[in-house]
Amino acid sequence: MMKKILHVLGPGIITAALVFGPSKMTITSKMGADYAYSLMWIVVVALFFMGIYTAMCSRIGATQSKSLLSLIKENFSKPIGIAIGIGVFLVATSFQAGNSIGVGIAIGEATGTAPYIWVVCFTIIGICLLFFPSFYKVMEKLMIVLVLLMLACFILTLFLVDIEFDQFSSGFIPSIPEGSMGLIIAFTASCFSLVGAFYQSYLIQERKKVQHQDISIPKAERGAFVGVSILGLMSAAVMICAAAVLFPNGIHVGSAAEMGKALEPLFGSYASSLFFIGLFGASFSSLVGNSTVGGALLGDALGFGSSLSSKKVKILISIVMVLGCIVAVTFGKLPLELIVIAQSITIFLVPFIGISIFAIANSKKVMGKHANNWFYKLAGGLGLLVIFALMISNVYDMFLK
């Protein structure tokens, strides 16, 4: 029974784990600490579109033998396909230091030791995992354990806090508190992760290879929506915790680590330790997942393929991990220059990814009878509008403001 459940949910859980990293925890912590429950609605909106695009990519992965990047290169534009692979690699590498630092802080705070020791230690562990006989199976089991760990920690933390249920329910009524637009945009951009959705198609295909059997479209789509629902549950739990604990006390946080520290004087070391365990889960799952996405898509773009059993792909994944480790140990934080580079690439890359996914999923030539129905066409089109609105906002903030 458990094997059947994992057969369906594995790829979706991996996607949820790699999307829910330290940056997501920081954004959701700030949303709750600064605006209480009033931004709960954006969780539903962002996850709806993430679910739509992840389900599209799951359907592509379930029905096609060729990778999504290969389909884009063959049916639309080879340069765009190559640019997407290289761009995702650069973005993954730029943000990898943040995942490494999250691991170091989580273990360092809990043990009273220097974070850089754990950055190096868990980078080595991550690279060692790559060279297990079946890396996909190892990664799938690791992500499931880490997701269950995160869920347990955040839900247990919620039991320690006093939730105002009237205010909580009113938070699902859309409103934009003064000064909150930046956080709304940041959360939507990070939660509606087209890179994560894109890689879902690769995870489905990898699972088919490992299990030597096909995955039906209903099961693939169901797994995608369950994975996205888990992502939403974790995001909501962190936001509710911050809203219930930090907002009433006027405590503002700049990072997930600061939220963990803020819990200790209010609820004791137990709550703080739970939160830091959750932060470790989010950081290490993203450390492995983020590097896997970057390495696999670069391999696919360069013609090496994307199989996680390929030595060339494993080397590219290792490069992402090592570079993230070096930056984390050298600077102790994610340098502003890398954030700017990653954001600049992402601004122009994400619309191409969104259009490419939508075009392939709509194509009767590629997908045949499994092409998007009217619901996916409508919801996917609205999702593209959201992506372009985010792009315009980011361009304005970075270059015109």
Can you put this structure into words, describing what you see?
The protein is mainly α and 401 residues long. 82% of the residues lie in helices and 0% in strands. It has helices spanning 2-19, 22-35, 40-63, 68-75, 78-111, 115-130, 135-160, 165-170, 181-191, 194-211, 217-245, 256-267, 269-301, 311-331, 336-362, 364-367, 374-400.
What is the element layout, followed by pairings?
Elements: H1 2-19, H2 22-35, H3 40-63, H4 68-75, H5 78-111, H6 115-130, H7 135-160, H8 165-170, H9 181-191, H10 194-211, H11 217-245, H12 256-267, H13 269-301, H14 311-331, H15 336-362, H16 364-367, H17 374-400
Span from first to last CA?
Answer: 55 Å
The major pleated sheet works out as:
none
> Unreliable stretches, pLDDT < 50, 5 or more residues?
none
Secondary-structure element sequence? HHHHHHHHHHHHHHHHH
Rg (CA only)? 20 Å
Summarize the structure.
The protein is an all-alpha fold. The chain is 82% helix and 0% strand.
Primary descriptors:
mainly alpha, 17 helices
